[in-house]
Amino acid sequence: MTLVLGLDVGGTSSRALITTLDGARAGFGRAGAGNPVSVPLPEAVAAVSAAVRTALTGLDPVEVRCAVMGIAGTGRFTDPAVASAYETAFAELGLLVPVRPVGDVEVAYAAGTPEPRGTVLISGTGAIAARIEHGVMTASADGIGWLLGDLGSGFWLGREAAALTARELYSRVPEGHLTRAVATAVLGVLPAAASRQAADDLIGALHDQEPRHLSRLAPLVTEAAEAGDPQAVALVERCATHLVDTVVEVHADGPVVLAGSVLGGSRPVRDAVIRLLAHHLPGTATVTAGPGEVGAARIAAARSGA
């Protein structure tokens, strides 16, 4: 039996999927963070190795003929120490083929469609739209990080919600679903009265955290929008507009694949994006990506027959 291995390796978890060439599932494993950008290298390698070991349960690793690891920051693998650490771990598991790192953008596209040409729109902690041609990213828009861009990302949603709440606290006690939820989440309690001190406390609490933690407020925007809060609904519309603008910038033909935690987990944002895409790109198919490990396994299967 010929098998392929697909890995989705991130800063939170690592997932390994083994399938046949036609996509039938043969094994699956999950472990902790496996990206050396997020955790120390030994910890990252151990997590990925654990996920693959579990996926290989009851299978012969020799039958794995191609393996792909979807991971952000593939440039890290130009460092011999990083590449060697992973290679050694995979060899110890009995794999006879190299595990090729592939960018998470290409993997997200493959997780949504087998079409050779199209566009992927990712909104998670960050945001990017990319043109994909035969498994390779040929153009992109945004994806330049929270300081300069990532408009419409989870970070952007959280920052905008926090800014709305801070401005309200200077003049009044927040009354809307969104700003009340943000104030309570950050301060632990809703202030009894408007005051400069309450606003300063919220701003200070947010500045004490790493900027990326603002993305944790994004789900509050979704909840408030679903409840009909006008500020949240307007924020969702702005978010979707930013995201669709990046798609229009790079799209040529083929489907548009939606991926990432915001587009996957926020129905208001996803619905708004689909509606705007239908307006700007009429007739274009829109699909939601499956798990990243599925996309990686599909790429591995395609490469095994190359």
SSE blueprint and pairings:
Blueprint: E1 3-9, E2 13-20, E3 25-32, H1 41-55, E4 64-71, H2 80-92, E5 99-102, H3 104-110, E6 117-123, E7 127-133, E8 136-142, H4 154-171, H5 177-187, H6 196-207, H7 218-226, H8 230-250, E9 256-259, H9 261-265, H10 267-280, E10 286-288, H11 292-304
Parallel strand pairs: 1-4, 4-5, 6-9, 9-10
Antiparallel strand pairs: 1-2, 2-3, 6-7, 7-8
- Please give the CATH class of the largest domain: Alpha Beta
> How does the helix and strand content classify structurally?
alpha/beta
Largest sheet: 5 strands, mixed
The main sheet orders its strands as: 3-2-1-4-5
Helix content: 40-55%
Rounded average pLDDT: 92
> CATH homologous superfamily of the largest domain - what is it?
ATPase, nucleotide binding domain
CATH fold-level name of the largest domain? Nucleotidyltransferase, domain 5
Instruction: Name the overall outline.
Output: globular
Q: What is the rounded distance between the termini? A: 18 Å
Q: Provide a count of the helices.
A: 11
Order of helices and strands: EEEHEHEHEEEHHHHHEHHEH
Number of domains: 2
Low-confidence stretches: none
How much β-strand is present in the residues? Answer: 15-25%
- Alpha carbon gyration radius: 21 Å
Strand runs, count: 10
